[in-house]
Request: fold
Amino acid sequence: MSVNALRPETGQEPILVTKGLRKVYTRHRQSLVALDSTDLTIYRGEVLGVVGESGCGKTTLGRCVIRAIEPTQGQVHFSPQGVPGVDLLALDKKTLKEYRRHIQMIFQDPYSSLDPRMTVYNIIAEPLIAQYRYTRPQLEEKVAEIIRLTGLNPEFMHRYPHAFSGGQRQRIGIARALVTRPQFVICDEAVSALDVSVQAQIINLLRDLQEQLGLSYMFISHSLSVVEHLSTRVCVMYLGRIVELADTADLFRTPLHPYTEALLSAHPQPDPDYPSRRIILQGEVPNPLNPPGGCPFHPRCRYAVPRCATEVPPLRHITDRHQAACHLAEDLRLEGVRTERTA
Amino acid sequence: MTRPTPLLSVRDLRIDINTMDGVLKAVRGVDLDIHPGKTLGLVGESGCGKSLTSKAILGINPPNCKASGSIQFNSAAGSWDLLALKPGAAEIRGIRGRRISMIFQEPMTAFSPLYTIGNQISEILLLHVTRDKRVARAMAIDILGRVGIASPEKRIDQYPHEYSGGMLQRAMIAMAIVCKPELLIADEPTTALDVTIQAQILQIMQELQQEFGMAIFFITHDMGTIASMCDEVAVMYLGQIVENGPVRQIFSQPLHPYTRGLLASIPRMGMDAEERLASIKGQVPVPIGLPDTCGFYPRCPLAEEAVCLQAPVPLLEIEPGHFARCFKAKAKGGQDE
Reply:
């Protein structure tokens, strides 16, 4: 597929396309494949959810895309509106910096991701100062504008982060990411550290901002319900690979990969009458330094057949809009989330 | 309704913490009953006082926390008011780990890195059950096998850093139940774990509860685990229980506006993605110098000055066995009680 291919069903243009993205860490002559040949397309205006458990490579994916860590191999084609499309991985430092104004990141921890010695104004203005040459009044105006947009009070912008609660700090982090008016935002566990009532406020804010500013998100989270709520499409990762990728409703109702099925069934629903048919996976995620041969999930998979131990299943289209990396995807009838409560 | 004597009755528990800004009233009059063999869930957001409440039962809060009230523990071996016992004295030490034990949130930091897992489990056995080290070791191996650790005879001599997070949490459960306690306090036992590992741990806890018949006091901020684990639920806000009742009633007919807000703000799998999440406006205030009237008033969608601020709100029995701390709470059908 060419990097400019439109999405056939909706005619959306891609904003970001990764090809063969791979990250290998080497230490003591051992190599750990944190991210294995990942091909992904994110279309303009959509939210791609990335879910998986600790160590599955979801954060590595987000950071490789923005080159916060350097991938070992691959391409990241980025086509923001109004500027020529590029392969971010092929850019020199200076040009990369110019493109970074269009692609930004929101972090998980609202406490450690803000410098306690900078005022909120300085924190939010920093990306603007790094990217543009604005005068002080221009800066103040831009900062005040984004502060209002993220639901904070501009009167407090000369205070320090310690004066704010967790939810307010996360708003500051969002304001900092959005102040350069990026088109693509990577949210890495952006609501995971927050209490539920505040989490709901931030989820709603992220959604409103996406609509108002026409943003595209890569939304990385371990929380299935949050991802379902925010995403247009979802990709599930396991041991550095994408194992399933589909439209959100499709993936949650009719999963095609046994790992997705197990994840969905393990997620505790806030409903004591939800007919729980929890699939308890045996064992734990294997050591990525010594991954199993064949399908990385086969030692824990209850449907595994001998072929799974020897042959790596590629991520392939099972239907037009639903990809899965499982040899048996067509034959299994896996159970997803039930929407109607069965009496 | 007459009920059997609770295993543990907390009455009017108050915990004050002296801070530089004044007295912080972290727990403000908590009443709870935990029945033998049942699971009581305590749910609330950060800073609501749920961990302080659970730690007060074992008397392991830091010295600057002043607790008052009573915590009556009716064990098979006798009855005590745990709050009246001297911390560090023989009596409470005979209860801790033996009759009441606790699982902590962070399995990675709850173990000492300097001793093997076997040493740490045997320590409790040698303190409470046996003086024979070989017997203790055999019991430790047995219990590790029971919580699902493969080849426990090898694993027992390993150090915590050789275990994964899920295995450490199993080891901590093993350590907590090895003396067959009557009450197990689980303070966010699965919060640090991945969802598939969480499912394993919750299943083990349920199996062990059925086998040993212990009561579980389950503290969490996650409504999902509450729904799958608990018989009764207490919802805590700002140091007070605001709602208390059977798990089905709490989820199907929440009475307190805070509980309703909490339930409405959770994204649920399978819900219409176009739906906006309800959120509770504002944020939890710092509990210093608060009035005795309803603590949720400033954030409450039902707030009405004439009704809500007249007097401190007691925990009202709105339906049989279902309590709410709200003057405006009504039973199903809408008529006043």
User: Anything to note?
Assistant: Residues 13 and 229 of chain A are 23 Å apart (CA to CA). The mean pLDDT of chain A is 90. Chain A has ten helices and twelve strands. Chain A touches chain B through 49 residues (CB under 8 Å).
